[in-house]
Amino acid sequence: MQLHAPAELTTCRLHRLGEGIGKVVYASEHWVVKRARQPSEILALIVIWKMLRRLERLLPGHRVSRPAHQFHFLRVLVQALVRVVPRGLWMMTHAGEVWRTYRARDQHGETLTREHLAGTPVVPRTIRFPPTRVEVDGWPGYLTVTEATERMEATLHQRLHDLAAAGRLEEVEVWLNRWLALRQAGWQRGVFSLDTHLKNFGVTGDRVVLLDPGGLTQDWSAIEKRLTYEGSVASPHRQLGLGTLLRGHPEIARRFDAHWRATVNPATVQHHWPTPAVRT
Ligand SMILES: Nc1ncnc2c1ncn2[C@@H]1O[C@H](COP(=O)(O)OP(=O)(O)O)[C@@H](O)[C@H]1O
Ligand SMILES: [Mg+2]
Description:
alpha+beta, 3-stranded antiparallel beta sheet, 11 helices, binds adenosine-5'-diphosphate
């Protein structure tokens, strides 16, 4: 626990840096603070996400584009609708189930991070301080926080796309390998991430870190289920959303897929696991 929040958090307005389904993240130069979204906000996002998926099924071959301002408007609208329906009713819908799963995974991941990853290079550094009011973009313009997290230079997703756009494909491959090394460092500490979206990892210096603890687990039946699925994926790099990025570089794609298969499998995960794996 620190005596004060870092001065840079309180001397200027913090800008919105990124967001996920459950959090909005604001940053100063070296630190980020997080705002947990309200349940109605998360439910609204889940409902919209389900609508967009349905729409995409109806229009095969089309990806529905989502300009930010229209998306924001839609979210506010759906959130208002979500609020007028009693919470108990929502909880009986599929969206309610998705929300419960998200929340449970997020809370469990936070606990596992505190117990196994805090203070290691696998996650960004986090500091705690007495409740501090910070100014942020958007409504209502401020936020009270009790912790801040080391700001990463970019998400892994951004870094890979920036490097590919600049034609620096050898570096794309270096980062992909560092990422696989980071996943193994997690397994050595007895945790496995079920949520391997590239936006959930950050890069800084030559380091990759896990940004989003949601989806971390120690449960071998969940891990095995996930690994069985991974084993059935025809093309890991496409499954990760790197199909377009690596389209002109079949050699890198082939090497990465082979490396992924040799790593993300039960034998390798068990090999790294600190205690003999037991099914719960
Ligand atoms: N320490 C950090 N440094 C830089 N960006 C971050 C950091 N933590 C989070 N972000 C950004 O905020 C986004 C959402 O954070 P995340 O923890 O994944 O929330 P959620 O649980 O809602 O998915 C990330 O995808 C990333 O863009
Ligand atoms: Mg996330």
